[in-house]
UniProtKB/TrEMBL annotation:
It comes from Leifsonella bigeumensis. This is Dihydropyrimidinase. SUPFAM superfamilies: Composite domain of metallo-dependent hydrolases, Metallo-dependent hydrolases. Gene3D superfamilies: Metal-dependent hydrolases, Urease, subunit C, domain 1. CDD domains: D-HYD. Signal peptide: none annotated. It comes from the Bacteria. Residues 57-446 form the Amidohydrolase-related domain. It holds the Pfam family Amidohydro_1.
């Protein structure tokens, strides 16, 4: 099967050019001057399919490196399965995810890894890889880290919050980081001071402050800044590379920027919710509606300027990339467990479908360049997590994961508009995007054509990742 995407504007993180993209089977075979003939050979007459991308961008498919499909969490399961979540991702122009295998305390790391394969295999619309969450760092976990790297799991997430669920103490973090420094794994950190948060939460509930808004107030930026700093210091001490997930506070950004200025391998990820949404808007939501945006780290105050600062950090590379932390829950039957006690609201927002569009709106509004859009949503995630060459770039030899994006199209986001995630609300209701995902190819196969999903479950395959290709 040969496909020619002709007359488009190919956008890579390194630059933009008018070019045709020739796909042979699952792979990009050539990027050519528009209308070129190869050695007198008329390409267009010799392909099976021609996609006309006149006036459109041709970009590498999105790589969302932070998802939680069907994760057991907060007394329930994240509402998207690998099937529904990866299909929604495809609709939105994301062609790879890296999901988190969870080890809860007392669970065996490798058993969990195999269990995640069972959930995902044969169900995904797009390619997927795994990170491993370690909730209980013991000798066996450290041995498992070596084993998992051989399986293509080259990044490990630890938590400084969620006591009894995920929390590691600083000694455990040190040991895991020592292992990462030794075997080359990228260490990922949920950086919030859990002990401080737990007391603030208890005090708020006892004082009768039970509404969703208090979720944010009891997870203050100081708890994020302090934990980010502590993680950076433990990484510095051990020599492990560090990737801080879901950075929301501008003070945490400053910690990361400072460490980077000193030459340390420290990286930061933010999410669309920390660029667009705020604590004030959550406060303004009537009744229990604020639960829709309960996630951790929490939404931050717009008056304090976190969102503005985050866009800036994304431009200057103080923050390297944008993932979703896609962790969807329905209001009915899930989020509503926290009526009367915000601490019982399952933490998470669903965005896997909208990340490419939301960040493209950042291009339209002058917050990032076109090339930076591709870089933070596709190229850097691919390099960061050892997928570059195959994912995150339009070049010969890469997997033909390609999105034709129409800058003259429009996307209205909302529950009864574009919404394919398995949720009974949209955290992004009413967002209007001055662009549209027109066509999505996953390894050469068209899986989204216009507004129709034309792929099949099981199209997506496990991606065995290498070590990070982003280290200094
Ligand atoms: N934050 C969330 O919002 N959900 C899942 C776990 C996390 O760290
Ligand atoms: Zn987290
Ligand atoms: Zn997460
Ligand atoms: Zn559409």
């Amino acid at each position: 099967m040969k496909t020619l995407i002709k007359n488009g504007t190919v956008v890579n993180s390194t630059g933009t050019a008018s070019a045709d993209v020739l796909i042979d089977g699952e792979t990009i075979a050539a990027v050519l001057a528009p209308g070129s003939h190869l050695l007198g050979f008329d390409i267009e007459k010799n392909v099976d399919t021609v996609i006309d991308a006149t006036g459109k961008y041709v970009i590498p498919g999105g790589v969302d490196a932070h998802t939680h499909m069907e994760m057991p969490f907060g007394g329930t399961n994240a509402s998207d399965t690998f099937e529904t979540g990866t299909r929604a991702a495809a609709w939105g122009g994301t062609t790879s995810i890296v999901d988190f295998v969870v080890q809860y305390p007392d669970q065996n790391v490798l058993d969990q890894y195999h269990a995640w394969h069972e959930k995902a295999a044969g169900n995904c619309a797009i390619d997927y890889g795994f990170h491993q969450i370690l909730s209980d760092v013991q000798d066996s976990s450290l041995v498992a880290m070596d084993e998992l790297i051989k399986e293509g799991v080259s990044s490990f997430k630890l938590f400084m919050a969620y006591k009894g669920v995920f929390l590691s103490d600083d000694g455990q973090i040190l040991r895991a980081f020592q292992k990462g420094a030794q075997n080359g794994a990228l260490m990922m950190m949920h950086a919030e001071n859990g002990a401080v948060i737990d007391v603030l939460v208890k005090q708020a509930i006892e004082a009768g402050n039970t509404s969703p808004y208090y979720h944010g107030l009891t997870r203050p930026w100081q708890a994020e800044e302090e934990a980010t700093h502590r993680a950076i210091m433990i990484a510095n001490l051990t020599g492990a590379p560090l990737y801080v997930v879901h950075v929301s506070a501008k003070q945490a950004v400053e910690q990361i920027a400072h460490a980077r200025d000193l030459g340390q391998n420290v990286f930061g990820e933010t999410c669309p919710q920390y660029l667009y949404l705020s604590l004030e808007e959550q406060l303004g939501a009537p009744g229990f509606e604020g639960a829709k945006w309960v996630c951790s780290t929490p939404l931050r105050s717009r008056a304090e300027g976190h969102q503005h600062h985050m866009w800036q950090a994304l431009r200057t590379n103080d923050i390297q990339m944008v993932s979703t932390d896609h962790c969807p829950f329905c209001m009915k039957g899930q989020k509503d467990m926290g009526i009367g006690d915000f601490s019982k609201i399952p933490n998470g927002i669903g965005s896997v479908e909208h990340r490419m569009d939301l960040l493209y709106q950042g291009v339209v509004e002058g917050n990032i360049s076109l090339e930076r859009w591709v870089e933070v949503t596709s190229t850097t995630p691919s390099r960061m997590f050892g997928m570059y060459g195959k994912k995150g770039v339009i070049q010969p030899g890469a997997d033909a994961d390609v999105v034709v994006y129409n800058p003259n199209g429009h996307t209205s986001i909302g529950l009864n508009k574009t919404h394919h995630m398995n949720m009974d609300y949209s955290a992004w209701e009413g967002f209007e995007i001055d662009g549209h995902v027109d066509t999505v190819l996953s390894r050469g196969k068209v899986i989204v054509d216009g507004d129709e999903y034309v792929g099949a479950k099981g199209d997506g395959k496990y991606f065995k990742r290498g070590l990070s290709q982003y280290l200094i």
